[in-house]
Amino acid sequence: MVKLPSNYFLGLLVTDGHMQFKWRKDKQGYESKIAIYTSYKNEVNTVCKLINYLFNYSPHIRRRMYSFNKRYNYEIIINSKPLVVYLNKSYSIPIGNKSLTLDLPTLPNNSLSKLNFIRGVIDGDGYVGTKRNIGISSGSLLFLNKLKDMLSDFGVSTSEPKFIGTYYAFCIYTSNFSKLYSLLYSSTDYFYLRKKLNWRQILNSY
Predict the structure, then answer these.
(1) What are φ and ψ of residue 34, in 5° steps?
(2) Buried b (16+ CB within 10 A) or exposed e, 17-50
(3) Nearest residue to 108 via CA among 150, 48, 145, 80
(4) Which residues, 6+ apart, have CB-to-CB distance to 84 below 8 Å?
């Protein structure tokens, strides 16, 4: 997986995704699955386009309505044992439950790859509110601390991660909004338009 958008895919996968590799209930082999979740139909189209570009694969879409949601949740599924094994071995993406112990994946040591990954993380578990608040949340303090260091390498400052009931979160300082926006969106074909527009609205409000 050498195409640059792959690092955006990794960002989505470690935040709003899941990998599974387990013995099937019918004991007829292993069940392998990669899934990414979103509640927005246009974001389903973005992820499907990305998967087709990276892997030449058309994912299966499963739509569900949960009692606590006001909109459908879409599960974008790749059934591929070789890809699950590859992502686990080459990028250290965990298989199974990862929310509390997640670490940064193994990324290429260059700025563009890291920025693609950060944009994927923000699209997955970031919040870009129209009330001038931008930040990232995770169940893993380790992940947030390392992500904070990665952002610092680009001159972007954040608050310290804070525990909020069931997860940790940090905020990106207001003075860094414009700089990070330029870094993340200056040259890319893959992003969640909803969050980019919210970010643009925040910048226009100053």
Answers:
(1) -120, 130
(2) bbbeeeeeeeeeeeebbbbbbbeeeebbebbbeb
(3) 150
(4) 19, 20, 21, 32, 33, 34, 95
Question: If 0-12 CB within 10 Å is exposed, 13-18 middle and 19+ buried, where does residue 187 land?
Answer: exposed
Least Cα distance to 12 among 38, 33, 41 occurs for 38
- Distance between CA atoms of 123 and 32, rounded to whole angstroms? 25
Residue 67 pLDDT grade (very low, low, confident, very high; cuts 50, 70, 90): low
DSSP notation for 111-173: HHHHHHHHHHHHHHHEEEETTTEEEEEES-HHHHHHHHHHHHHTT--BPPPEEETTEEEEEB-
Spatial CA neighbour of 13 closest among 90, 125, 111, 107: 125
Question: What span, in angstroms and rounded, lies between the C-alpha atoms of 138 and 142?
Answer: 9
Per-residue model confidence as pLDDT tens digits over 143-162:
999 999 999 999 999 999 99
The H or E element that residue 110 is part of is none
Q: Amino acid identity of 146? A: K
